Structures
1.
Amino acid sequence: MSLDALLEGIARTQNPTVAGLDPKLDFIPAFIKECAFAQYGETLEGAAAAILEYNKGLIDALCEIVPAVKPQAAYYEMYGTEGVKVLYETQKYAREKGMYVITDGKRNDIGTTMEAYAVAHLGKVKVGSKEYCPFLGDALTVNGYLGTDGIKPLIQVCNEYDKGIFVLAKTSNPSSGELQDKLIDGMPVYEMMGRMCENWGKELMGKYGYSGVGIVAGATYPEQIAELRAKLPETFFLIPGYGAQGASAKDISAAFDKNGLGGIVNSSRGIMCAYKKEGCDEKDYAGAAYREAVRMRDEIMSFVGEIKLPN
Amino acid sequence: MSLDALLEGIARTQNPTVAGLDPKLDFIPAFIKECAFAQYGETLEGAAAAILEYNKGLIDALCEIVPAVKPQAAYYEMYGTEGVKVLYETQKYAREKGMYVITDGKRNDIGTTMEAYAVAHLGKVKVGSKEYCPFLGDALTVNGYLGTDGIKPLIQVCNEYDKGIFVLAKTSNPSSGELQDKLIDGMPVYEMMGRMCENWGKELMGKYGYSGVGIVAGATYPEQIAELRAKLPETFFLIPGYGAQGASAKDISAAFDKNGLGGIVNSSRGIMCAYKKEGCDEKDYAGAAYREAVRMRDEIMSFVGEIKLPN
């Protein structure tokens, strides 16, 4: 699905948020782990089974009201090849439920190697006369430190398969400024990266005014979000840092344009671990995730107003 | 194994090179693919079986004379979860043969997510009361765009498990300068990144004068290599770009110190596809890889001289 499909999902649900799926075992209710370990033992297979069960419960609860999921590759790789299988199964399940899938892998390399990542996460690979989807992302997060050589192969694959990317510009962490805020000819690195994205995006324009080359812009830096929104009118924002990392809905409001489009706000732990914060029965973890997703949507929409797709 | 173990391997073999394992199906001799497809069909399983067979042949041929391998994660992810299994199996096989394993993943993220990548590729993960190695790298390439928050979790895991990282500083590609050569307060970004690595490395010093926080410095930029060697005396270099990307042994010579230490030079396609260039029987692909590895070693050693571990 192209980035346009994500915008349509956001408009349909009137909800510019994405549920991050970062399934550490610590986040998963004990009853799910016990059941998985009873079947597979305390093994990587057992961990993987628990994660998949947990993710499916979350996706079932959220798919009607949240337009997208963002599985974070690190948490699947952490459980080895069994975990990576669950990344695939999670992507597949979320797609079947109509959700847009942003694979958060922050991949980066050059030339044919970047092409391999693009094929892996957004395209199809040829094996003899057959073709397969290695993974099932609709978009992939990437790191632009290597410049155009690292991005062009992605654009090609995105064009061929109708996919998108989000390039790190201003990340949400405290030390993001060590490099990203530094000035190059008077312009901060994050802005320079953003402008490169706006430029790369010309080759991947969608029908609602935003290109398939988005950026990552952390909610924890509201001034930079406002500045980037003004300077990058065709660039869509993936916005981490809401909730657990301390940013509020107001901090994010500048990301949105007059149609209520322009960004999608991620919450991972806030939604996944809502049952812990709420203190409800852990068997109701998916219900708690739903309630937190509604609360987050309502809070953000109070600043966004109505979301309309432009003609 | 710590970075010290890599230096010991380099001294033992008198060979400061690493064989990149970037197994595109196109690189693999037809007889291996035919055999794998006969057993598994033209499937991802078939592709994975062919890649593993090919890699094992290369490792068998190289393990006595080349101290390290560098599997590039992208080429394994390109064949889906079956491919990722082969990444693990390749790492395992190379280790059994005494080779140092550099996982080329260019991973990057922050806080607990970066910790998950560190655990995935360099550490052990807890599942209930048990512990497992998700993957089997001795070192991991990483991208430092996110600053210290993205590196500290790695240092911790490296200290705990005696591992190393290589952070992208000056990459070998033509567009690497778009960001990396830009000046910040008069200092190019690649140097600033290198200095951050030299500083992060203080927490991971080895016994031969180099820390476990290395950098990636492309052979295609010999002046920058010389400059970085002078400015970063405790930082070890992983050097891509030799051969297929156009750099010569002379271009790289400035990376080495008076003991012949200081860097390790990668060749991927040059070694993997030596049988194509040589025009030999493809069944002798491993022999051709061996001959190319010897040629490359001799060419580089003609500039390095003898390699000695300092007392």
2.
Amino acid sequence: MTATDAETIELLTRIRKDSPLIHNITNFVVMNSSANILLAIGASPVMAHCQAEVEEMASIASAVVLNIGTIQEDWLESMILAGKTANSVGIPVILDPVGSGATRLRTEAIKKIMEECSISVLRGNCSEVLSLGSADVRTKGVDSSMSLSDPVVEAAREMANEKNCVIAISGEEDCITDGDRVFRVSNGQPVMTQVTGIGCGLSAVTGAFCAVADDNLALATAAAFGFYGLCGDLAVKTSDKPASFEVAFIDRLYSTGSEEIEGQLRIEEA
Amino acid sequence: MTATDAETIELLTRIRKDSPLIHNITNFVVMNSSANILLAIGASPVMAHCQAEVEEMASIASAVVLNIGTIQEDWLESMILAGKTANSVGIPVILDPVGSGATRLRTEAIKKIMEECSISVLRGNCSEVLSLGSADVRTKGVDSSMSLSDPVVEAAREMANEKNCVIAISGEEDCITDGDRVFRVSNGQPVMTQVTGIGCGLSAVTGAFCAVADDNLALATAAAFGFYGLCGDLAVKTSDKPASFEVAFIDRLYSTGSEEIEGQLRIEEA
Amino acid sequence: MTATDAETIELLTRIRKDSPLIHNITNFVVMNSSANILLAIGASPVMAHCQAEVEEMASIASAVVLNIGTIQEDWLESMILAGKTANSVGIPVILDPVGSGATRLRTEAIKKIMEECSISVLRGNCSEVLSLGSADVRTKGVDSSMSLSDPVVEAAREMANEKNCVIAISGEEDCITDGDRVFRVSNGQPVMTQVTGIGCGLSAVTGAFCAVADDNLALATAAAFGFYGLCGDLAVKTSDKPASFEVAFIDRLYSTGSEEIEGQLRIEEA
């Protein structure tokens, strides 16, 4: 068994045993699917966005997942409160910059969250993530919105160092880096982009993997991506059409264990 | 045919014939599934939370279902307005105390609703429900968060008398009591806890059963629990994995009739 | 091949090729299903409701879809801002008057939107749509809440002229008119009324068809209705129960192409 296979199985086993509470402040579109995705892998999801309770909720959680789709100003304040609480109690914070770059509100929201909170993992697609980098990073990312070219990897690595967090870019091939180690993950299926909330669900799952990880969040994130993509690879055998694929995929998140994982992860360290 | 079989079939028949309008003020996670669950049993769901319309909506409804997951302050005010309207027009109010005990906001929200409105049925899991009882009730409920031990039944019965409402506790075995009669229901499947919104959906279904009941809301609630659990028992034969189970379950809520019900309900009066 | 078959195939082909961005401000219940429905036909959905971003979002979109289910005051302001932006950049605005006539808030919301914005297509069921007409229109619509009688068609035609928009009424048989041409569509299945969000999804799909249409929005709307209903006709062969029907339906929106469309649309021009 490879080291990444063993690590993935170990983290998944811990999630199923400990049911870590994952506190999500996420968008209206994916609340249901993110909750079901977290339940399927064995975690305990809670959605809570009201300023009056987010600190209390984050303080009893094992990870906080922030997602800015359908953001509004008061939710942004709640995200910052939850993020700061997570920082103070020492649990990971995952940030999903949905639509960053599309409107000023979203771009500014992400910047404000990253200024006020320490983020553990920033997970999005290539254009969303690189829109948040310095001019130098953005230049490297231009015209690379889907493919994992060497300049994108280099931009991600620089950004991880700049922001002091794990940068996790989803795409045909995924790239996860903490600025030092770089993982490429090629599990996953194109139909996953045709179902809303699959990307947001991966941010939530990354939260669960990081919640039970000892230390190495880049490796835990790569394990989350590999496992998630593998469940897609298995589910597409049941259906390659989006709605029935989603059903099969969530079933696979629930039922996939060490036997299916071993030898099937396509995680490579660069 | 037993009396509970006959009562369950009678109430379900009325729901399918009259399509009672069930006004839900519920959390963002389960709005879609609660609407589909209500449609499947033959009721007419409406979701409306704005203070400017909740009184009007409640006044044309046949039951009001309040659920505090993802609560925020202005929604709490709307819940109280809807509850008071329901009280004044004489329709049942179901209250689902999602996460009560987890944060002050939620515990206080439930207390405020129960102070200002007359609740017909309080439905939740054991820890949620008993967190709302007096010190004496909470003591009896300690260490009984899942199993339906005699002290839990006794605590529920006391609480029903204290609060003057039906207490309905979901668990491996369910307990429904109005302080006088006690029903135990053992239909239902463990996978139902692995799908988000199944519990909240039961609160909505309880609303529909109570909407068409003549008087005995404890019996109507037990009928709702028995029917709902039975649909789970039937659906698990199609799939025991969460996403495909949910599809099969909602299909069963739609298609299950007197033939499947007769002799299959496991409702016992203590 | 009939002209409507050809037009429907042409518009669907454009959607799948161009992936038009459809900006939805819609209700909490259907956000997930509307997003999945739009993805399935090949469009790019975005949900954004915050006043701080709706103008920017609408200005980069190819159509705006407004839906007043679960409306609240600040969302109404956002809808008007998005509608005005759409008008100024010249993209279609679809309006879905969910629950119009049920509460003053909803009836007034629709009136305000229609006063302040130019609507391209008003899509709803018969009672919702006719509740918004003049006294003369409402009288013609009385007692015709489901069936497409001649007085309803006449009322719709008058209303289209009054409001200067396409009136699209969903029912057993649908009626689409711009005041001049009248289309009747009889694809579709009764089970579609037993799944929440199917009607709202049709408004979103109408947005996508209008986004890629050259000019004739009544025809584009009829094409959207025909295609959508046909996917229902095909899906019901897989299942006539609501939850599994919904899965099959969304799969069909994704997979149905010119071969299935040709000769199967039941769109007639009166």
3.
Amino acid sequence: MLDQKPESVKYITCIGAGPIGGGWAAYYLSRGYQVTSYLHDPSEIDQLEKLISNAWISLEEIGLEPGASLDNFSSTSDLSSSIERAEFIQESIPEVLELKQNLYSELGDLVDPLVVIASSTSGMSMTDISARCATPERTVVAHPFNPPYLLPLVEMIGGEQTTAQALEWARQFYLVAGKSPLVMKKEIPGFIATRLQEAIWREALHMVANDEATVEQIDQAVVNGPGPRWALMGPCEIFHVGGGEGGMGYCLDQFGPALKLPWTRLVAPELTAELREAMVDGCVEMTDGKDFTALSQKMNTGLVEIAKLKKQQSTEKKK
Amino acid sequence: MLDQKPESVKYITCIGAGPIGGGWAAYYLSRGYQVTSYLHDPSEIDQLEKLISNAWISLEEIGLEPGASLDNFSSTSDLSSSIERAEFIQESIPEVLELKQNLYSELGDLVDPLVVIASSTSGMSMTDISARCATPERTVVAHPFNPPYLLPLVEMIGGEQTTAQALEWARQFYLVAGKSPLVMKKEIPGFIATRLQEAIWREALHMVANDEATVEQIDQAVVNGPGPRWALMGPCEIFHVGGGEGGMGYCLDQFGPALKLPWTRLVAPELTAELREAMVDGCVEMTDGKDFTALSQKMNTGLVEIAKLKKQQSTEKKK
């Protein structure tokens, strides 16, 4: 609730029992919260419990927070009793605008206006979702990646009527809860991570559609090539390291002309002086000005661990 | 050499002393080969030795092959003596077509026609590279990812004059050498992995150019979101798992409409019945028909290890 510190939150309600809603429930339990799941249909409980107990194996392996227990979980199909003690609400119902709008219209009246309601939507704007909500000022988008109990990203943004205070409170809450919240600059379709992912996905679909590569070749190309790097660094830092001592600036000067080549179906932007500067400055700031040796060491250490992990997995497979 | 088994290769020449050529030299040394590097300029030796000894730290950590030693390394700036004992040649000179054509013209006369010459080019076709080579039938593209001593992918394809035998011999050689060769269907600009990577990269540049995200936000979005998954599975298998019991088919039916949304600047192909079938069949084949439980377990086990790795890295950082 907005009148309490994010650190003092104990009761969370997760609305929705699918892979995202259930994944959130498991995650919050692992952090020591009391969690109530709202089920649209009581019959969903079996699948939800299976999902949570499966997630629990991974969460125990990573390490539970003090007080974390599956005993702190309850569920109900009664919306008003599900939110009774809620100090924070994570909504993850299906991605159908009308369903979301109906729910937020109900929640807008039912839930104390000091309780932040965060939506896991992967592409809709809160302006649209809360269009019929009487108390939209405490609603935010908080989009996780699947599975939400293993990937830390939470992309955040408010709707037109969301207060800055509510958005900041929610960001602080996710930090306390061990997540990596990212507050976006604007409401853009697909947010940030999904846009990047969707670009790869569409290129992959084009390649299959044009018989340039098989499904298996596409996946092998990613997993054995750039994939392991992306677990450790984003595309900008990777090129910043790839540029050696010269960093991103060298990389853009060297490979800039490749932007004119048909190396993807996505047409590139003009590499203006401003864009070049934004990329170079952004990389230097992001890496605290660390030099090539430090960055490439960070990359190599991580890649060695991933290589060892894969060696182990393939040995286990052969057994 | 084409008249010997790939298993019996002992002597390799690496042409080029940059991050790719040097990375290959380090990798081959770690696999127990005798390696000679050709340096365009003798002064490059310091930088090359630094690169190799730095790579060696990672390679030792992963595990050297029997007989592997830095003592098996030599270098020279004399092209003909560099290739004297070569049973296989890995070329990694700068990506300038004229330079490559000049080199292949020389190598075409100098090198025994039974020795396969593989180019690390990241986008040029062997048809172009070997245009002035007298013996192009044993030349192939073999494109690694940086750093080549840690990432297993080698994208392969011959030029118009390359024999199927030479391409297959080289593929077998890379398998013996512990790499993951991927023979492409066609000579396409950017090959497979770089096309996919370039799509992400261009979308990222557009987002910065349009002030939709900062450099740091883009990298955080990847590293904390889809990135760790890409270390373990390609984009197709990820959606195949994401679709739950219904797999890729469910995913396409559910999220297919998102292809019409402006979730990236890359326009999507039409999701025809043929494309849907190719994606679904491809996923089922690639995963040997494994069910959702098995696939999601594989994903979770890997993500737990990556999460632990990152936890460890961030603890070390704070020290």
